[in-house]
Amino acid sequence: MAGVSTDRRVPTPLPPRHEGPTARLERRGLAALSGLVAGFSALAVAELAAVPVRPEASPVTAVGSAFIDRTPPWLKEFAVRNFGTDDKLVLRLGILAVLALFALAVGVAALRHRRAGSAAVLVFGAVGAVAAVSRPGAGPLDALPSLVGAVAAGAVLHVLSGRLALRPPPAAGGTDGAGHPDGAGFDRRGFVIAATAAVAASAGAGLLGRRLNASGAAGAEASRRALVLPSPASPARPVPAGAELGIRGLSSFITPVKEFYRVDTALTVPRIDASRWRLRIHGEGVTRPLTLGFDDLLRRELIERDITLTCVSNEVGGPYVGNARWIGVRLAELLREAGVEPPSRGGPADQLVARSVDGMTIGSPVETVMDGRDALLAVGMNGAPLPFDHGFPVRMVVPGLYGYVSACKWIQELELTTFDTYDAYWVKRSWSRKAPIKTESRIDTPRPFATPKPGTVPVAGVAWAQHRGIARVEVRVDGGPWQTARLAAEDTRDTWRQWVWEWPATTGNHTLEVRATDRDGYTQTGDRVGTVPDGATGWHSVVVSVT
Hints:
By secondary structure, the chain is an alpha+beta fold.
């Protein structure tokens, strides 16, 4: 028809949105953040899910404990040597760092493969679940916290990565629906709202889980606060006058609890209600199996003894040795009550395996435990109930044996067996089955690289040879002749002994060395040997500069 246009124009399709470098970088940064948020959600929800199971089932603790179980001796020694009693904190931080890196990578990967990213989180949760159920004493429910946490993280990541997906472009010159100019490409507002909600909900779950787990330990803490230890029937004699030399920088004769070393594998210190604690004694040669409660122990004859403990991980001159006053029940009497005889009297069992509530196993020679020394099931330390860190409510103390073959904390079971039949925890990891403490000595003062003045300088320290006793300590300077140090008064042969030598110091750099001789006549060797497999040897030395 004339004058009527029949030209129907079809709108030209808009080109696909081009994501500029700045926008791409922004989206990837938020994707990495979404991975961290998902990781935080996993840990927080898992903390809450661990409440009906046990605190040890939480992912970080489970993975960390599994890592410790599989750590080779050289790496364990490296951790103890470089981080000391902070080794567990370093391990936790390391696990969290690895988890954070994994979460960052998964968050970025989920931009392109949303479902694959969520699936990767589930796989990581499965690793935590396997680690949890592989721990000694664990059950199928121990896998629950890791799995629940992984599901929560997968859901959070799925939602957040969806908010970061590029959307079809709006009309030219318009906005993207969130108020941002054309080109923004994803739902910023939705991402911020979802991420904030996820963080808030996760934080609430984590705090609730921590509070509930703490309330579960409240009974244990209340039982310790309420405990009044009975007076020992056989108290320790007073520390002899002269046992404490009173020299500045010298370790005190009785080590304060706060300064007493702690070396174990427990990432989470067990909190055990004393009223619910039980000890089972059974195994080969046990004719009368026993099950004892905490009150049963307290009703028995208690003895009090000063005993020095030493960790096999203590390097020459190291800090992992301490002296405390212990209260407990004679272990040999309990074993005899159960019908146990040592091998020298025809008993079939030569190994006493102690099991802790955290799954640790420690094997001690039956002959040693029953040879008359003051081997204890200890309930007190320095006049108070055992601290949780040191084994409350009950631990083993055996004079003369390194801790890894005697000092089981949080003990719940004693099994009589043989060394040929069973290898305890550390024996499976290249340590010796039997490990009497070696004769050792240490210079406490002057400290390494000290700068004393010329003149008389007290060189002082401690020496130990538990259940043998220290007979002599000698010091030498710059490889010269050995000089006899003055020994402090001896408490018992089961405790360390302080010593001092008055050094006529002259100007210059000097190397001080010390060695000890025990009451059996053995003088410690100068050959330097590491801690594996049964304790370090060598003379402790200190370099000083007299100016």
